[in-house]
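Structure first, sequence second, as always.
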């Protein structure tokens, strides 16, 4: 299933997304939020609407997480480009939920930062409550789907602070979307690409993750309960770099689509 969250007649709605005449379109309203389905998204009730092409819809972030738990340095080449050691276990940090930004939203460069970077990533959306899962359990049962994420970072403040909460947590620093889908298999290898003003800056594949998604989820869930709707950006490939006002950032994940945002100075 593939779905989005969008504005319809002034109300936020979840919409079922299907291909219509070769283009993604919202074809039905989901009457229950997918994160409330306890993993049974196929049983959700829906209501038909006149199809709305996805590119014409007023999209919202397709997630409403209680927390955003990010994974740092999960590609070897990215750790190397920042001059950091490769972690021996998943490196986790939190990103403020107030940083969420919809597709086509504007990333604001804070006045107090001299360098703001893009970081394109595959995002995991949790579908069932997960805390210290049994060692023999299939972690995929806890996953609702996957989406595109841009883990925007004030790089100078990250280096200055030594911890990442401020640098990663500014408002607008977590663009997400355009859809959530369970129709891909990151374990088999999914391409992740970032373009700035049409120029390819990042090209990675989930086959190259240092820590697989099941390892990541197990590691997080040893410390904190993951609730339905929680978002886990899984790490960014090498090629991160700065953006300035007027830039357009496109984060594409194979089988999901493209998350597009522009940049403006605060």
């Amino acid at each position: 299933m593939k779905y989005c969250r969008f504005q319809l007649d002034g109300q936020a709605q979840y919409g079922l997304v299907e291909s219509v005449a070769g283009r993604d379109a919202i074809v039905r309203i989901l009457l229950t939020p997918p994160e409330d389905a306890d993993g049974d998204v196929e049983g959700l009730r829906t209501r038909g609407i006149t199809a709305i092409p996805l590119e014409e819809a007023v999209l919202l972030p397709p997630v409403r997480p209680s927390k955003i738990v990010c994974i740092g340095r999960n590609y070897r080449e990215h750790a190397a480009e920042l001059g950091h050691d490769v972690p021996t276990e998943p490196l986790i940090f939190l990103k403020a939920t107030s940083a969420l930004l919809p597709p086509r939203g504007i990333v604001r460069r804070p006045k107090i930062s001299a360098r703001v970077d893009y970081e394109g990533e595959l995002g995991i959306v949790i579908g069932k409550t997960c805390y210290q899962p049994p060692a023999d359990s299939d972690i995929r049962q806890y996953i609702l789907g996957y989406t595109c994420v841009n883990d925007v970072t004030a790089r100078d403040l990250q280096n200055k602070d030594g911890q990442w909460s401020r640098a990663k947590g500014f408002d607008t620093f977590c663009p997400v979307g355009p859809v959530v889908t369970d129709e891909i298999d990151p374990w088999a290898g999914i391409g992740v690409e970032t373009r700035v003003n049409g120029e390819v800056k990042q090209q990675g594949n989930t086959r190259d993750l240092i820590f697989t998604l099941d390892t990541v989820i197990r590691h997080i869930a040893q410390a904190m309960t993951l609730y339905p709707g929680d978002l886990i950006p899984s790490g960014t490939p090498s090629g991160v770099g700065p953006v300035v006002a007027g830039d357009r950032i496109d984060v594409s994940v194979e089988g999901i689509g493209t998350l597009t945002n522009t940049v403006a100075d605060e």
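Margin note: The helical segments are 76-81, 155-161, 165-169, 213-221.
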